[in-house]
Amino acid sequence: MEKSYCILIVDDDEDILTSARLLLKQHYSNVHTASDPREINSFLTKYQPDLILLDMNFQRGVNDGREGIYWLKHIKEVSPETQVILMTAYGEVEIAVQAIKSGAYDFVLKPWTNEKLLSTIGTALKFSRERKKVEQLEQTKTTLEDSIAIKNEDFISKSPAMQNLMRTLEKVAATDANILLLGENGTGKSVLALAAHRMSGRNKNSFITVDLGAISHSLFESELFGHKKGAFTDAKDDKAGRFETANEGTLFLDEIGNLDMALQSKLLTVLQNRKATRLGENREREIDVRLISATNMPIHQMVNDHQFRQDLLYRINTVEIQIPPLRERQEDIPILAVRFLEKFCRKYHKSNLRFSPASMDELYQYHWPGNIRELEHTVERSVILAEGPYIEQLGLHLNNNTDTQPNGLNLEEMEKHYVLKALDKNRGNISKAAKDLGLTRAALYRRMEKHGL
Ligand SMILES: Nc1ncnc2c1ncn2[C@@H]1O[C@H](COP(=O)(O)OP(=O)(O)OP(=O)(O)O)[C@@H](O)[C@H]1O
């Protein structure tokens, strides 16, 4: 029995409804009937039928098929994925042809033979399944292209703190529990989220990222839940939201602490109902995603300050993992530094570069407000500038005293100085540092990039 399909039969003749239902019930467990076509809408919303078997005429004495065509067009408009098979009487060939042009999959003549009806329904459902697969693949492809920004690096760690953390992550990854990753910027939250997905039973399906810190208020719903063509001015095509694209996979909600209260409520509703509605549509779609969220914000403090909803926090933090900053796991510094050295030597065609003992000391003593990302940029810059076989100096602010004023009035240096100072004051929290500096997060990222921070 094909349990997963849902079929609706619409006919005003109770005998036809009964005989079709009895026949189809033997093959499909989810069969519904309606004697009035005006019920179609509520069925579409409630059950999202894969197929509708639709009569052409409902009013007594009328047999021009216009009603059938009207409802067919309506169904295709509201739910394009639903296949429609029309039931026509002998001699209504012209109407049947018109119906196919209007989007019906096929038609069957009344009275039908059971074999003919079953085989027409069977091929329509197969066609619909294949089409859905293709559509989902196409939409996944577009969304995946956005997610590829996360690098595929193996997670390197040696410190006991990270080894413990990885053991926990491995255990949790195997379940469907939602994970909240907490840690300063650049500690590796995105890398860990991807690692958790890879270690999970969902790893054959998509890993989809949403940067909630970068998504505008107006695009939030369309990005997360999708939209129907024409739902707003720029909605040129139907688009699946990230929740849908991540179906049966993992959805990574990065920077969740940046979500304002209104959007937190919208997200919570979807998580509670496990259903999402595309903008411009009125039917809900089931969602089956494993949620991994991350933030560098003090989320529990934010709950106390009424800036983050406690009920949303409970939804996302079934397991909470705190990633220690790099300065608290110094054992990781040399292996990461060497890995980055090898990577950038390859990239910039420099061979046999090594850290001098003095530069190794620098690496240990520095307090790394930008964590691993900063270490990576520091090593890259040093490789570019290195002239001999050794990296002699990394140019880090070793005494960690960002209050030291830059020499002279060089604007670039002053900018770097204040960026560092803001990062230091806010313990690497980009959002807060950006706020202190009067910049957007994106603008601060650009400046950090420019100064190799
Ligand atoms: N253990 C690791 N091994 C190798 N590379 C790592 C490791 N952890 C992080 N990285 C690298 O460090 C950089 C920062 O990592 P990532 O983007 O995951 O940090 P994050 O905590 O998500 O940062 P943000 O909060 O700014 O988004 C990336 O380039 C990533 O590849």
From TrEMBL:
The keyword Transcription regulation applies. Residues 127-154 form a coiled coil. Pfam families: AAA_lid_14, HTH_8, Response_reg, Sigma54_activat. Residues 155-384 form the Sigma-54 factor interaction domain. The modification 4-aspartylphosphate is found at residue 55. Residues 6-125 form the Response regulatory domain. This is Response regulator with CheY-like receiver, AAA-type ATPase, and DNA-binding domains.
